[in-house]
Design a protein that fits this description.
heterodimer, A: alpha/beta, seven-stranded mixed sheet, six-stranded parallel sheet, B: alpha/beta, six-stranded mixed sheet, binds iron/sulfur cluster, oxidoreductase (chain A), metal ion binding (chain A), thiamine pyrophosphate binding (chain A)
Chain lengths: 590, 193
């Protein structure tokens, strides 16, 4: 056995590799992204970035049906996208072990909600394992493959941010090759038409009952006896918080939270005077403990929102805690678009346009903040186009504003295309802006169909959003360079004024991805008249002091956008630089 | 031992904490490290919790119990100083990076002398480390984190050689020499407060 320091995500990848997994698919999403990144380093596993989570789950399902061990990974909201095949997969079951990992994000470190995906297991009738640290991430993943094959069921592993992104010591082993299970055509199992599915549903209940028996004896649900005064039931990382706050209590640590090990809970409850359930987000365990008719303290005292922590537990249970109030009046430091970010240019072009702007999920979501205030809505992946279509249909005839959607390239491939087809088919006047920075910026620069490069490193066809748009039947399709801010603004204003359907692709590589670092630009204080036009770009390298703009040399990456927008010509490349500020061929100052 | 590291996205907080957790692993201790990824890296506030010892449960440090807070930026020091235990040590870079609301003029800057005074009140054992300035002088702002590592190294309780080994293992070969130099300069700047 070797000891390694691994994050929960890396440990899941390690467990999959050791368990003989052959196919793994995912769409990147914090905090799940690193699972596939780590898997891609093991060459025995075919791995891919799928265009979205539904695709990823179906790819892994196909592999499992054909007899190979397979894994699909996604963040919590990704399972919503993949929910359709997820429910059906439970009916179909698994020939080769089939593991689905959902990484939930309590505390919304980087998400649009904090849903609790343990409920998905209950609803779809799929076993749910909740590892509490990196070692369990590796161990449970290996066990999940075995359980999946033994009981002919997919298995859901639920991580949370603190499990996925915390590192701990993991004892690891070597890979065991698991031969392909011989594929047999079985339409009554793998084709869930109504007549077959009826039978499969009955079968699913039987399979689940058998797993329920396992959850009672299994090593997953462990009683750790302590004082009889208090018994704590907990899962995931909450177990560790509770262990620190209540070192003397008795514990029932749940690793398999569904099927629910009711008998184990009864047995445990009989040994203690009081029961406390410590869990994050929803009362998943608590509801089931109550359903057994047991009296328990849970969400009546503990928070239902945000992450659990030692302190949150102490404060809500009225236990003494260190005096540690945070300092007040410390200016917030929200994330911002990077210096040189090409999204900056398009948001600048959209400023003061009196448009309705449907937004989407990615780095460019940061354009919702001042100085851009560049979107009215943000719902989920792909909703920019469809929501703008809805507002256009509802208000179009009476509304003077153009209805605009702004979506990134990876998001467009994920679920923008169907929305775009819908706008053409149903004749709306939405102007769709595809902010194409040649990568999946937000999650750390994963490739996608528009880059032509796969997770396993091969290079092939590049799929261009403007060609898709044309093929969808959009008549006006324009490609602009967002670094040429004035020109971009001119194009955007012209198209917005027409209020006709159009697609604008603004293309420039993500500044962080290509590590743009040209020599810094400079402000000539003689020429700067303090109009603050450049400040409106929202570039973190630009600030305003004593009535003049100022560029922080160590932050500026020399993209030249500020020079392009400055009406006084006060900003220029430093003399040492061989970079020219982008010249606008057709620009008019505002 | 609980160490909270904080700074601004892009300052090398994560590499810094990787090096320290690796050290703990090498030296036979249990270790857990927890950090924030994703959105927070886009110039936002970034933290990393590192805990090591004979047995570690939670990956999160509880407020008021950190043995050390290492801050790569002044305002971030103020934001997280409440994590320190009463006898804890604060290492902080006086370098200032204005949050976007300050540079676009929608929020006031907290004055430097006010930050100083408030830090002094909360952290009697503290050491200012001009890591950013030093890194700039060494020719690359990206070694700010290594200068800081040198500065805190004597408080970590690990042998020097072991720290250097962990450092060389985790930085790219091309950057090794500069990093070792930055580490040495950092060591010279500071002693344990
Ligand atoms: S990572 Fe790329 S796309 Fe995201 S904000 Fe930075 S420059 Fe823009
Ligand atoms: S050139 Fe201007 S816009 Fe570009 S990074 Fe530097 S200051 Fe920001």
């Amino acid at each position: 056995m070797t000891r390694k320091l691994l994050s929960g995500d890396e440990a899941v990848a390690r467990g999959a590799w050791e368990a003989g997994c052959r196919v793994a698919a995912a769409y990147p999403g914090t905090p799940s992204t690193e699972i596939l990144e780590a898997i891609s380093t093991y060459k025995d596993i075919y791995s891919e970035w799928s265009t979205n989570e539904k695709v990823a789950l179906e790819v892994a399902l196909g592999a499992s049906i054909s007899g190979a061990r397979a894994l699909a990974a996604m963040k919590h909201v990704g399972l919503n996208v993949a929910a359709d095949p997820f429910f059906s997969a439970a009916y179909i079951g698994a020939l080769g072990g089939f593991v689905i990992v959902t990484a939930d994000d309590p505390g919304l470190h980087s998400s649009q909600n904090e849903q609790d995906n343990r409920f998905y297991g209950l609803m779809a009738r799929v076993p749910v394992l909740c590892p509490s640290n990196s070692q369990e991430c590796r161990d449970y993943t290996m066990r999940a493959f075995a359980i999946s094959e033994e009981f002919d069921l997919p298995v859901l592993i639920r991580l949370t941010t603190r499990v996925a992104h915390s590192s701990g010591i993991v004892e690891v082993g070597e890979r065991t090759e698991v031969p392909l299970k011989p594929y047999e055509k079985k339409v009554t199992k793998n084709a869930i038409l109504p007549a077959f599915a009826k039978v499969r549903h009955v079968d699913l209940e039987k399979r689940i009952d058998r797993v329920a028996a396992l959850s009672l004896q299994d090593e997953f649900n462990r009683i750790e006896p302590g004082s009889v005064d208090l018994g704590i039931i907990s899962d995931g990382v909450c177990y560790h918080y509770a262990r620190e706050v209540y070192p003397d209590a008795s514990f029932l640590k749940l690793g398999m939270v569904w099927p629910f090990p009711g008998e184990t809970v009864r047995r445990f409850a009989a040994t203690v005077k009081e029961l406390l359930v410590v869990e994050e987000v929803d009362p998943f365990i608590e509801l089931q403990v109550r359903a057994l008719g047991l009296k328990v303290t849970g969400k009546d005292r503990l928070p239902r929102t945000n992450e659990m922590s030692q302190r949150a537990l102490r404060l809500s249970m009225g236990l003494p805690a260190e005096k540690a109030e945070p300092e007040t009046g410390v200016t917030a430091r929200p994330p911002a678009l990077c210096p040189g970010c090409p999204h900056t240019g398009i948001y600048f072009a959209l400023q003061n346009q009196k448009a309705f702007i449907g937004g989407d999920i990615g780095c460019y979501t940061l354009g919702v903040m001042p100085p851009h205030s560049g979107m009215d809505t943000c719902v989920d992946m792909g909703a920019s186009i469809t929501v703008a279509h809805g507002t256009d249909k509802a208000l179009g005839a009476t509304d003077q504003r153009p209805h605009v959607a702004i979506i990134g390239d990876s998001t467009f491939f994920h679920s923008g295309v169907t929305g775009l087809i819908n706008t053409v088919y149903n004749k709306s006047n939405v102007i769709t802006i595809i902010s194409d920075n040649r990568t999946t910026g937000m999650t750390g620069h994963q490739n996608h169909p528009g880059t032509g490069q796969t997770l396993m490193g091969s290079f092939g066809t590049i799929i261009k959003p403007e060609e898709i748009a044309k093929a969808c039947g959009v008549k006006t399709v324009v490609v602009v360079d967002p670094y040429k801010v004035k020109e971009t603004r001119k194009v955007v204003r012209e198209l917005l004024a027409k209020k006709e359907p159009a697609v604008i692709v603004n293309r420039r590589a993500c500044a962080l991805h290509i590590r743009l670092h040209n020599p810094p630009f400079k402000v000539d204080p003689e020429k700067c008249d303090g109009c603050k036009t450049c400040i409106r770009l929202g570039c973190p390298a630009l600030s305003f002091d004593n009535g003049k703009a100022h560029i922080t040399a160590t932050t500026c990456v020399g993209c030249g956008m500020c020079a392009d927008v400055c009406p006084e010509g006060a900003i220029s490349a430093s003399p040492k630089s061989n970079v020219q500020s982008p010249k606008s061929s057709a620009g008019s100052p505002s | 031992m609980n160490i909270l590291v904080c700074g601004v996205g892009g300052q090398g907080v994560l590499l810094f904490s990787d090096i320290i957790s690796n050290l703990a692993l090498r030296n036979g201790l249990d270790v857990k490290k927890s950090e924030v990824h994703g959105l927070a890296q886009r110039g936002g506030s970034v933290t990393s919790h590192i805990r090591f010892g004979p047995k570690v449960y939670s990956p999160l440090i509880e407020e008021g119990t950190a043995d050390a807070v290492v801050a790569f930026e002044r305002l971030e020091a103020l934001r997280y100083v409440h994590f320190l235990c009463p006898s804890g040590r604060l290492f902080y870079d006086s370098h200032r990076i204005d949050p976007l609301p300050v540079s676009i003029g929608t929020a006031e800057r907290v004055p430097d002398d006010q930050i100083e005074a408030r830090l002094a009140a909360r952290a009697p054992r503290r050491q200012m480390v001009p890591a950013f300035k030093t890194a700039l002088e060494l020719g690359n702002v990206r070694v700010q984190n290594t200068v800081m590592l040198g500065a805190v190294s004597s408080c970590l309780g690990f042998p020097d050689e072991s720290i250097k080994q962990s450092l060389t293992e985790l930085v790219k070969p091309a950057a090794r020499e500069l990093n070792l130099k930055a580490f040495a300069v950092g060591q010279a700047i500071s002693a344990c407060p």
